[in-house]
Structures are given as structure tokens and as C-alpha cells.
Amino acid sequence: EGEELPNVHVAINFLIDRKYREWTKLDEFKGKTIGIIGGGPVAVDVAQTALRLGAEKIHLVDIMSEKDLELTLREIPEEEYEYMEYHFGTSTSKITKGKGDGLILNSYKIEWGELNETGRRPLNKVDGSDYQIPIDVIVIAVGQTVDFNLIDIATNNKLKKERNKIDINPITFETNIPGVFAGGDIISNSKAVAIAAIGHGKEAAISIDRYLKGQDLTTGRFKENRMFFAGQKKPPKDFSLKPESLEEATENIQWDFDEIDSMFNEDMALAEAKRCLSCNHYCLHCQDFPAIYSDFTAGEVGSEKGFTTVVAWTDRGKDIIENAIKKGLFEEGSVNEDDLNEAINLKSKRELKILDKTPRQEVLNYIVRLGPATISKIAGILDLEAKKVRYEALRLVQLNQIEMKVEPG
């Protein structure tokens, strides 16, 4: 409610207009407060654009928690983040008129319920948590709905849907209509990320090829849920398949549109094209996005104490590991193949084997992946008591796995 009011924009149109049509208005939002419904990467793009056009304050309202948005938040430069205020775990009921040309975001806090029979966690409003945020300009940066008009006409309204998304077979991506396949944001239970859509396209293409040849669509294929193991103990340093771009100085980042990441050179572009699409630094266990088949996976099954088992699934994966060993990045140890084969067998049967991480592992993994942090910050992100984090951190210090120091003030 209220999306039709003046000064309420949709993110995509907002960004396109300011890139191609309104780009000369460098003080368009000077001294103004911007409200953004959403807190993901697109919302951040909107916030950064508004700051460069003079915005004084940005409010981002999102139903997700700070922990859920952790990867997005890490990408925001400090010089910009100080002008942003995130309202985590918050939903918006409506947009109303405020004083003068102003607007009001009518928001409230939410709690996530337990998984229900549909596999979803319902959102529950926290009683008495309603509050208002005075805003000058509002941008809606959340998922958009699908216009099924032409699709329904083409299928005589026979296409089965669930919550305005197409229902598909999760292995074959075939709809309830034989020979009709779907993927991307338009299907139910889909992750709204580009790499997932790429994966859906690949799996659907395999199905279409088999369908046209009269072959079985499911033989030798698995659900998208793949098994992965507990976290690496000590990821190797300076080993990454992801080329690093050169960052420019960002002291005055909020005042101009200068690029802060340099372009790839030829070698970097080739390296980027060859790597696994889901690879981060040290490969966070190749989380098996369906767009590609992982070259290798890593876990603790079958390894000696203090070691991590790495399984190479392809010749390329084998070459990567062998090169890392030659460079001295890995130390070799023995592997219990029976335990490993049992784990792989479980995976082939589409079962998940859950290995709970201890609080100590969680604290160590956080510091290894994200760098130094205070006790209170780690406790908040990992949803642990501060005294528990302090205890586990002290034990890690005793084991010479991390260092701690007291900051003045």
C-alpha cells in the first residue's frame, strides 16, 4: 500500500534512470533521507547511488537478520556504511504521506517461525513493535512478481503454480505439463541469484535433450542438495582461484562515481573464466551450486586429527591439489577410505549427514574467514552468549590458533 505515491520508486527503474537519464543531477538528493525496502545487493546499489547524489542518510529495511545479510554487508566500504542504517528483522506494512512532500515507512519487527509442512518458515509480527520512519524518497528493492498472462494463455491455464511461482520437478525441472520446463526466479523454491538460474538452465537443457530423444529424464541425476562436511580447520593462505581486482583509494567514495575496482587484464579474465563459479577464497567446501560440477570438495570425514580431507572429483581438481602440495600450501596425511566411501555412499543416496560444529569451531571459522572482530560482534553474528565466545576464544589462544588483544576504550 502506498507504492503509487510520488517519490516512491522501483529499484531497477531508479538505477537505470540515474545511469542514463538523470545522471547530470549530481545534487538530486542533497540533504535528503532515503528509505529502501530491502537490504540485499540491489538495495546497496541504490543506497550507493543515492549517496553519490548527495543523500544525507539511508534507511534500509529488511526482514532478514544481520547474520543472514553478512556477505552483503562485508562488501560495503566503511566510508559508505556510516551513512546507512539497517533495520534488520523488520517488515513494512504500508507507505503513507508525511509532512510536506515527505513520506513515512510504517514498519514493524518480525520473528521467524519454525519450518512448517511446506518447508518454509512463517513470518510472525512482534506485538507492539510498530514504528514509523520519516523519509523523503523511498525505493522498493525487493523481489518482483511474475506476469503470467502470456504463459497462462499459451498453456490454457494448466500450468501448476505455488505462491505465484511455477511448480517443477526438482531433478528434471519439468513442469506438470510434459515437455514444458522452467527455471530461474520463476520457479518455486528457487534462490534468486544468477548462478542458480544458470544451473537451472543447464539441468533443463539436459532434460529437454533426453525428452526429445525419448530417454528417461532422471537416470543418474541427483537433487540439488549435495552433502558437504564441517568446516576446514586451517585454510591455506595465499591460495585462491579467484583473481583479485585492484581497489582504488576510497576516502571520498560517497561523493563521486569513480570506479573503485579496476578492470581485469587478460590473464585475470582467463583465470576468472576457468574457475569454479561458486569459488570464494580457499573454496568454502565447493558448495555444489548446480551450475557446475565441483572439481573438489573438502571436509573432515576420514582425515587424521588436525587434517582436512580433500576429494578431487576431476582431473582439473587433482591438478589443483597437486600444485598446491608442490607449493607447500598443504601438508599430506593419511585418509580412512572406508569412512570416506561411506560418506560418499550416503551422498549418492541423496541423504544428508549433519555434522554439528562446536562453538569453538564456529568462532575459529568466523575469524579465519572474516578477520579480527570483538567478542560482542562475534557473539551477535553467531548467536552465542558473549561469555561463551570469550571462553572459546581463550581456549583457541591457548592452542596457538588465534591471538587476542585489548583495545583501549
Automatic annotation (TrEMBL):
One of its GO terms (molecular function) is oxidoreductase activity. Residues 262-336 form the Coenzyme F420 hydrogenase/dehydrogenase beta subunit C-terminal domain. Residues 29-201 form the FAD/NAD(P)-binding domain. PANTHER family: GLUTAMATE SYNTHASE [NADPH] SMALL CHAIN, GLUTAMATE SYNTHASE [NADPH] SMALL CHAIN-RELATED. This is FAD/NAD(P)-binding domain-containing protein. It comes from marine sediment metagenome.
